[in-house]
Amino acid sequence: MNSTSRPDGFRDAFIKNFITVFLCVAINTINGSFLYIYFRSEVFKKDPRYVLYIHLVINDIIMLTSSVLLQVITYLAVGGINVAVCCTILVVMVTTNKNSPVNLACMAVERYIAVCWPLHHPQLCTVGRTYCLIGLIWGASFIDAFADIIIIFVTRPLSFFSVSMMCFADAIFSVRQHKDKTTVVQVVLVSMVFLTLVITYLKVLFAARKASGDDQVSARKARNTILLHGVQLLICMLSYASPILTMHLIRTFPTNFRNILFPCFLLTNVLPRLLSPLIYGVRDQKFSNQLRLLFSCRSSGPGEGERLKPTAGERVRPMKGKRETKTVGERGSSRKMNKQTGRP
């Protein structure tokens, strides 16, 4: 993986990049439709639940685009990529990768508050606090990613940033301090998110058993949503297990390492980004209704500042102060009425 030669032939490289770019464009198009629906409706912007969801969608778009861009650049740059450019892309990828599980935990907590503390939910879960929470998520994830760059400054000479090599995280962040820091952060992060999901799921489960009527239905939906958060978290964790899985597969099949790296990349980095719109967007009634209207080219009504265009069967009234033009039939009927009444 640290070799500076082209990893595949032209045909294999073209097929792999075509599949990856096609999936990236398709997934980003689906996610982009949810972004369009979100930003054109004020209802979604006022709900913290949808604010957190759309942040997850934006985060997935950034992560998928940067990872696919890095793959394409790796195949195009025969002599390798400059370490400074590589570090910039890796910081974006590491930051967005850390954002996903933390955002899932925040979404689970928001559902827990909505079900177990419904009276306090409007005060605790406001849109302003949600934006502050998203800022904290990005800040904490960026500090963790930027710490890898600080370790390079401390352990390597400045000339290392001008070297060109294959852009892999294990190749750039290869010193012992990187591995120790990554292990500690991943264990703490996964443990906190996992415990948050388990606790909120159990709390909502007990609340669903005690509730009745509409409250029971709402609690059951929240419980299923948190359960889906856990499933998506496990799939997000595949990116952490990818290096270990890849290493064992390469040791088992050393002659097919080129065919092992690409499927692992698709399963752990590309396809999981498709889960967010499928789990939340299509499953949510508001988003699914707006999505059907969007793809069926229908409009739910005129927006602000828009005017309804009159149809062909509607009669346009004349403007005030202007004389109305009458047809021949209308003139004849008015003359008959004047003869009968004797009025001009």
Please provide a brief summary of the model.
By secondary structure, the chain is mainly alpha-helical.
Q: What would you call the structural class?
A: mainly alpha
Query: What average pLDDT do the residues reach?
Result: 77
CA radius of gyration: 29 Å
Order of helices and strands, N to C? HHHEHHHEHHHHHHHH
Beta strand %: under 5%
Please state how the strands of the largest beta sheet are arranged side by side.
Answer: 1-2
* Spatial gap, N to C terminus: 100 Å
Principal-axes shape call = globular
User: Total number of β-strand segments?
Assistant: 2
Number of helical regions: 14
**What does the largest sheet look like?**
2 strands, antiparallel
Instruction: Give unreliable regions as ranges.
Output: 1-6, 298-330
Helix content: over 70%
Give a structural overview.
By secondary structure, the chain is mostly helical. It has 14 helices and two strands. Mean pLDDT is 77; it is low at 1-6 and 298-330. The N and C termini lie far apart (100 Å). Helix content is 74%, strand content 1%.
Indicate the topology.
Layout: H1 10-39, H2 42-45, H3 48-76, E1 81-82, H4 83-116, H5 121-124, H6 127-155, E2 164-165, H7 169-172, H8 176-210, H9 214-236, H10 238-252, H11 257-270, H12 275-281, H13 285-295, H14 328-341
Antiparallel strand pairs: 1-2
